[in-house]
Amino acid sequence: MANGNFTRVTEFILTGVSERPDLQIPLFFVFLVIYGLTMTGNLSIITLTSVDSRLQTPMYFFLRHLAVVNLDNSTVIAPKMLVNFLVKKHTTSYYECATQLGMFLVFIIAEIFILAVMAYDRYVAICNPLLYMVVVSRRICFLLVSLTYLYGFSTAVVASFSVFSMTYCSSNIINHFYCDIVPLIALSCSDTFFPETVVFVSASTNLVFSIITVVASYFNIVLSILRIRSSEGRKRAFSTCASHMTAVSVFYGTLLFMYLQPQTYHSIGADKMASVFYTLVIPMLNPMIYSLRNKDVKAALKRFLTNSCCSFKLM
Q: Where are the transmembrane segments (predicted)?
């Protein structure tokens, strides 16, 4: 295409979850509730694991950072999405779109590896309990989380730069509710081989490495639990990782459904629903999974509410 035959794109239009006008207000309230529950649940986890002295262990340190990335990832997507339900023109500027994509990638990559780190933490706790506080020391915890964020940031910069180094012209309608890689690549009028390669290598490497870590950790955990002779001991050991196993199954199950199904079975509607699930629904579900299935978190919440009520009465 000759340079004089197109106008360079300076803004994009997001089609949203649904283009039906009659669904905009109902969907606004549905996702407002989801985002409200996400904020409440994850802020509660962050607060409890920060102030309660009985939750100052590596497991809850990692849980706090999982809540941080869940909250941040949802916040990158939800506010703009909610605004678009109420306005007619769903526009986003070129640089706003690039920023949203970059921040989304930082937090989704961080979530993938924090879940892997949490699986490793449970492996050490159950398979090598005597060495637990040495292998997963406070220093190691900070190092693992710092590397997770650093890797997420550097990978997001490379992927975002490769996507937005392409030329966008004429069509600027993104068939999605946020700026995502696949619909952006589909809009480009330049060669997409390099960004597609970067994205494929990065995504496949991240998923394969994290899934191998999780599967290997839980394979050894199951073997260790089966070697425990008492049923009470097996039950107690299993309960320490049941919440994380549930969260991992939901998260990776959604990603694998979206990215491993044959291209001929892909549909825009199914991809949007899968995106809704891992960007908005899973961040809402994780605090519920870890609080409803965890006696320590429920006890910490009860203590926190009791202390807050007592403090309020003394005022």
A: 27-49, 101-120, 140-164, 207-226, 238-261, 273-292
